Amino acid sequence: MERPGFLPRQRLDDLLVLLRDSGYRVIGPQLAEGAVVYRDIGAASDLPAGVTVESGPGSMRVIKQDSPRQFAWANGPQALKPRLFKPAESLWQVQRDAQGRLSFARCDETPQAVAVIGVRACDLAALRIHDQHFLESEYRDPYYARRRERLLLVAVNCTDPATTCFCASTGDGPAASGDYDLLLDELEDGFLVTSGSPEGQKLSAALALTPAPDARCEVARAAVERAAAVQTRRLPPGDLFDRLFAHRDHPRWSEVANRCLACGNCTQVCPTCFCSRERDETPLDGASSVHQREWDSCFTEGHSYIHGLVIRAETRQRYRQWLTHKLGSWHRQFGRSGCVGCGRCILWCPVGIDITEEVHVLMQEPVHD
Amino acid sequence: MDRYFLTQIFSTCLVCGVYDMKPGVAVHKFSSCDGCQLAFLNLGEELLELDRLVEIVHFAEAGPFDEQTPVAIAFVEGSISTQADTERIRRVREQADFLITIGACATSGGVQALRNLADSGAWHASIYPEPEYLDSLDNVTAIREHVKVDLELWGCPVNSRQVLAAVRALLFGVLPETDRDKVCMECKRQQNVCVIVAQGVPCLGPVTRSGCGSLCPRFGRDCYGCYGPAEALNTASLGKRFAGLGLLPEQVVNRFRAIHSHLEEFAPPQGPDYDRE
Predict the structure, then answer these.
(1) How far apart are CA B63 and CA B60, in angstroms?
(2) Nearest chain B Cα to A346, which residue?
(3) What is the pLDDT of residue B270?
(4) What is the pLDDT of residue B7?
(5) Region A55-79 average pLDDT
(6) Where are the domains of chain A?
């Protein structure tokens, strides 16, 4: 295996300049609206230095520390999903001419190449699932595909998971295992740089890095191991289909519905949820119309609306749909669980419902009075 | 209201978009602040397009005044708070094929329905030397409590997009779409950071109907529910969360009551902590 190169922290801007010179719009983590969010990055000084995150179910606060580290935070609410699967986008439009003839046109945009810095292992795992869904299924999504083809990924191994994280138990983190162009390990004074693709190798070569000594590699490895060891939440391993579907009538579904707001936040921050709805936006003159796709959720009534009937009218049914799909029927659809252990659904649930806790109870035989 | 009836009212040539006769539109005001009527007046150039498509028969705030001529669509702003209102709303209904309430006041009673929770007679007596000259009902009520309403547009105030979408759909001869999803859905589509989770503020987004474009959270503040209740409500759980954020029971109750106090959906949960009054 290739020995990682060492990039001193003060040279991080070299990487950003290199990416920009290679034609990429550079997106990276920033501190905004009280959280770590991915935005355009001008210089390395835009990165959230000394920022760490204190979190629990339904609550998080950013803590500023006197530290040079720029990637010492657990994931923010979103990462790659909104870059590739847009929260709202126009798919096609139709125009009516003076003779009443209709002409349809696909909304084609050629997206700029984007480089995202700071991607975590959980988000790379989620990306693999979205690639399966949007690119490798029978119906390839051209909108997703165009953006995916122009995406460069600079992953950073996670050393500071949130208390809500459980990627170690799903096998998706905290170390990135592939599907990146470049991988960084953050040390106090700089970064180990490993390339994972021909494009990454080119970038790495252009940076002309010196090989990292063993001692630095050992420090980096130990930090990632610690990030796995500190995680306290976990999901049961394997395909939970049989056990969850055998408990369709478990009283816990009603109990969780007493707390669940059916607001859909868990699905919107989930990096693997991919449901959408479509609708038309028509200007007042009625001569044209734009067909829009936007994020939907199995927690909305429209999601289960069929021929005048909402199939899942109750929150109990919606939560059950979400969880049994995510952890059960997902296996039959994609050959793995739909959960990558990022913990966002726990952290960003306004009332702090914990999927690991719910699953634990739902797997037990119901206790009858 | 079925499709057949709608196409009767809005008989238009689908090819050229020209009507046999331009459908008449009226905009009526009851007890309100006039803010929802601004959804029309703020349209800019689209107001000219609207004028090309429909005949604006009555719209006192904009100029035309004619309460007598029958219209295809009557927009109604404001709540019913006087004896005269109760009679006028019946006439409005009789003269309109399709009646649309616009805004919180018309749709639920709005802010002024807060007086239903108080002894308004005592208030009148303490302010006015001769309260017997006031025409003021004890309770403020929504339009739907008096006449049949065909469509409700929520919001305090409604926005131009809602109004135009409703007019456009009706001109096509279909019922306007209603979206009862929560503000959270719009908020996440805009990639806002959740203010409950990241700031610990009592945001009503998880129980409030979308349509505003998550205006308040977009600017980092908590939704106060002006678009009214969404579907699949769980106010009890959200109220408990607000208590966990440090709100006193009375503050939780007031949070839900501010704009839509007259609605059962936003009434305080029953229980020792939330007893009414």
Answers:
(1) 5
(2) B197
(3) 58
(4) 64
(5) 95
(6) 5-89+106-229, 241-280+297-363
pLDDT in tens, A239-282: 999 999 999 999 999 999 999 999 999 999 999 999 999 999 99
Q: What is the ipTM of this complex?
A: 0.96
Nearest CA in chain A to B177: A279
B110-161 pLDDT, tens digit per residue, is: 999 999 999 988 999 999 999 999 999 999 999 999 999 999 999 999 999 9
In DSSP terms, which residues pair with A276 in a beta bridge? A295
Q: Supply B257's token pair.
A: 């009551």
Residues from B contacting A (CB-CB < 8 Å) are 14-17, 46, 49-50, 53, 164-165, 167-168, 171-172, 177, 180-182, 184-185, 188-194, 196-200, 203, 205-207, 220, 231-232, 234, 236-238, 240-241
Chain B residues within 8 A of A285 when measuring between CB atoms: 17, 49, 53
By CA distance, what is B43's nearest residue in A?
A: A284
In this complex, is the C-beta atom of A261 within 8 Å of any C-beta atom belonging to chain B? yes
Check CB contact of A35 with chain B, cutoff 8 Å. yes
How far is the C-alpha of B225 from the C-alpha of B260, rounded, in Å?
8
Report d(CA B242, CA B257) in Å as an integer: 14
Question: A299: which 2 tokens?
Answer: 């927690």
pLDDT in tens, B217-236: 999 999 999 999 999 999 99
Residue A218 has pLDDT above 60, yes or no: yes
- Do the beta carbons of residue B207 and residue B225 sit within 8 Å? yes
All structural domains of chain B:
3-171 (3.40.50.700), 183-274 (no CATH)
Task: Determine whether B212 is exposed, middle or buried from the number of CB atoms within 10 Å of its CB (0-12, 13-18, 19+).
Answer: buried
List C-alpha distances in Å: A325 to A77, A333, B1, B203, B205.
22, 9, 38, 29, 26
Contacts of A94 in chain B (CB under 8 A): none
Of the candidates A33, A100, A285, which has its C-beta nearest B220's C-beta? A33
Residue B15, pLDDT > 50, answer no
The answer to whether A286 contacts B171, with C-beta atoms less than 8 Å apart, is yes
Q: Which amino acid is at A122?
A: C
